[in-house]
Amino acid sequence: MSSASPPPVSPLAPASQPDLPPVPGVRLATAQAGIRYAGRTDVLYVGLAEGTVPAGVFTRSKCPSAPVDWCREALKGGAARALVVNSGNANAFTGQRGRDSVALTARIAAAAAPCAETDVFIASTGVIGEPLDAAKFEGVLADCAARAEDGAEAWAAAAQAIMTTDTFPKRATRRAEIAGTPVTINGIAKGAGMIAPDMATMLSFVFTDAALPQPVAQALLAAGVNTSFNCVTVDGDTSTSDTLMLFATGQAGNAAVSDAADPRLAGFKAALDDLLIELAQLVAKDGEGARKFVTVAVEGAENDASAHRIAMSIANSPLVKTAVAGEDANWGRVVMAVGKAGEPADRDRLAIWFGDVRVAVAGARDPDYSEAAASAAMREPDILIRVDLGLGQGRARVWTCDLTKAYVEINGDYRS
Amino acid sequence: MSSASPPPVSPLAPASQPDLPPVPGVRLATAQAGIRYAGRTDVLYVGLAEGTVPAGVFTRSKCPSAPVDWCREALKGGAARALVVNSGNANAFTGQRGRDSVALTARIAAAAAPCAETDVFIASTGVIGEPLDAAKFEGVLADCAARAEDGAEAWAAAAQAIMTTDTFPKRATRRAEIAGTPVTINGIAKGAGMIAPDMATMLSFVFTDAALPQPVAQALLAAGVNTSFNCVTVDGDTSTSDTLMLFATGQAGNAAVSDAADPRLAGFKAALDDLLIELAQLVAKDGEGARKFVTVAVEGAENDASAHRIAMSIANSPLVKTAVAGEDANWGRVVMAVGKAGEPADRDRLAIWFGDVRVAVAGARDPDYSEAAASAAMREPDILIRVDLGLGQGRARVWTCDLTKAYVEINGDYRS
Hints:
Oligomer: homodimer
Helix content of chain A: 25-40%
CATH topology of the largest domain in chain A: L-amino peptidase D-ALA esterase/amidase
Strand order of the largest sheet of chain A: 13-12-11-14-10-15
CATH architecture of the largest domain in chain A: 4-Layer Sandwich
Number of strands of chain A: 15
């Protein structure tokens, strides 16, 4: 943001932020590298203990950023020792210069860690198409590596440093046990526009001291993204840079479990899924210009995948989202969004609720519907739009935010 | 719109509107049926001479309106004698009452025409989910049928009566010859939100005195929609009511041509296509809140269908559309939209232009790119976004408008 006054904090921001506990094997530091922003931190360095296992899910964009290409390749090595994240410049659509820039970043980070270049993971967020001068990391990352620490303040600073148009930092923590050994999971994320499903939306990094074989970490992350970040949308636009990574340091010393479906991992899996959902919801709550947090719940679809596509059609509809902004219980636009999804639907079996108020049933307005009650539901900051298709057992739940004039304002004046 | 002051006319409205000539066999009248609006016409009645052939293309929504269901069925009869269009209420998602309402409208119109009920075509536009009291047409349609006429004023009034949030009426005319016989084509259309491809967007009615067998009329219309209304999008939302119909009265007395591909129809086809493009562009120019008319031209795709999907991805991207509103030559968002389309694309072969200014080439910023020149192009009311994928010969061209705060304003306060 180049505007003089920072945007106000989203009214949907949580009242308080959790203090994140240490995750053994993870140390963090932030710095001002001067990539784009003045007077704020714009680079996060995370040092990871030897033996750390990485997992990652990335954008499905056909035009991914140079850092995404790098991470996909580095994942094959199966080891992680450092993560570098910068905000302000996405290093996307920057051609050979972008690839050189990522390589230089890896070189500088590897010297700082120290570690092999292929053990460095990199993510960038911000403007697309501008060359990123990675030489600015020279000195900065070595200094970060020297002073990286594991306290709550370091975690808070990390969540702060990766923000772009986010109005509040996003962090979450969970505890779990694996075969009787307690483990910790910490996560941070950033949004807040160009958010859509079809991949691990935006940037999010999750760290645990659990010992997990790489295929297990990857399987757990890939499963978790489906019920969390792939269920959140702000504007239907898919970033070139979306990255979700999980780093497992193994310092907890739990027994190794080689199958993601092993019951001994059930508690960990539940905690990870829950943490990912919390982070994903925070992203929707900080959607650009958001004033309402919207849950779209679809049931009675032919199957879950169909329910998901219908829910996303509703959540991505500009007409639905502007109606929510206007606190208008406009179920007609929900019908429209169901209809355009292209999924099996029978107009005459549809039922629709706003909050607890059933506004439509059997393909028409609910005869008992109270406009006053529906309007009251729309005035809440949290809005539930529930649709029953009446066809089968398929269900899905996704999260989004309203579409306000502030979204247009933020995005009509981002680059200039 | 229930707001006290009418919206200002779109700055993209044409400086002048054409006077439409008579189309022999077509007479029109408008009235105030009091469906929803006060102090303006809200119903259009068109009387069609015996022998008129209908053709139609309708929304692909899985939740179509009751009038769309009616027209699909009536088309099978192959004959048209009357068209009734009302604005203010879409009669969509109104259940059995909606079907009854359409049947009653047909009965009233058939008595007025007079004709068989199955020769009546019906379209409704406006709010979804509210019962439409068709009894209000009683008397009104008979009066319309009695005073229907074919002058320029009647055509102008027709274009006016079908408007909802449109800020200007949309009409166009063409002349052509079929086998040496001159024919006329007149068309009217209305937009202006819930506009997306995947069907004949919004309501548009085209009338010609050409004699065309029904399969030929249908084939010509179905082909024409692909390069016109299916290439325009305002917000990516697909209406439950979208209807494009062509009525051919046959009064010109041209030789019957039984094959749509017959060279004797080439001139007529070109004129029809051109008229449909003009109407489609007028819809984009009157997109809700539009301040910029945007042409997205994609070339070098693997094939035309792929080019079309990429062009629509760009045209539907909220981030691209807000950048245009902000007069920001933000090619990074164009890259994003290409990437999210899911179509074959090679980041490192992409080239992008705003107007005549090439801003990106070979996967990076054009080294010769002038920010000042690009900014000047963005200040124009007509914006061309051109993308060359560098892969093949596929090309497509679509039209849209920018996404402004006025769009949010209009749609956040439509129903209340």
